[in-house]
Amino acid sequence: MTPETTAPRCEIAVIVPVHNAETYLPDCLDSLAAQRFDNFCCILVDDGSTDDSPRICDETACADGRFLVLHQAQSGVSAARTAGMRAAREQGAIWLAFCDADDRYHPDFLRTLHNAAQEAALPLACCRYDTFTDTCPAEAPAPAAFRTLRAPEHLEALLHDHAVDYGLWNKLYAAGLLTEAMLDNGLAYNEDLLANWKAFLRAPGCAFCDFAGYHYRQHAESATHRALPPQSIDDQRRAAALIRGSVPPQWPELQQSANAFYYEKLVYLASMIQRRADADTYRVHLGELNIGITAGLKDPQLGRNPKLPLTIRLAAWATVHTPKLWRRICRRFLKDRQ
After folding, report:
1. Please, what is the average pLDDT of the chain?
2. Which SUPFAM superfamilies match (predicted)?
3. How many helices (H) and strands (E) does the chain have?
4. How many CB atoms lie within 10 A of CB 164?
């Protein structure tokens, strides 16, 4: 009789998309190797790197059996995450986590989120993150307690609570909660927001751990410091529109919140353009945004939505009624992505 074979199994698979990350990748991998959680694997997806990243990945996998490497032609971060998820399922992973190749985990990131999700009997857990440039912030002890966000509170938090945030990387997901279509959803920007929205819709709630478990590195090549491609404007607006159009009908308060989120996104994107020295090159996009902002000014679902912050209402009014003054204010006080 042939012995029955079983698939390999790890409790958590951490998926790291890697593209030309040689400068920061060793620091990232050190933080993963230092996790105080026994049963995890880390899947490094080399997405067509042309620097020393493939060698770093291969040497790490040779030295530490918890790491494995996939090499593929450059396909983008969403495709890399999707490839990593397929490999995680082959490893029998019960939970999935994500990390960007230039960031770091707190040593108790996996243990704390896993414990919280298990204790809350929920398929989703998350924590706060902090930012750093050269030196990682001092790491406070991870808490034993957590807060449970029940539906639709967790969806509200995803849209409006910076501690929960849009990113995939400060969260732990039951492997069955995510699908390939969620991760590779056709967006190059805000793809993580849309993926999270769809995953959160499938979850009855989220366990929130109030500590900075994820360290997000800020540098000249990071996403928040890159230029503003026109596709970024289109994708962000599309993600907000898709969210607004997919709120379950049993949650009218959440619909109101999603409407406010959509209108805030219009105002935010217009300000992103206005703060740039080359704003005139975005005149088509700015014109489209201004049409939406103007049409929504007196709409109780948009510009007069009670969930819309006063600052956004004022910014919307200034965008429409005092555009030249508002542009000067944006350029003076909103310094990023100029």
Report:
1. 94
2. Nucleotide-diphospho-sugar transferases
3. 12, 9
4. 23
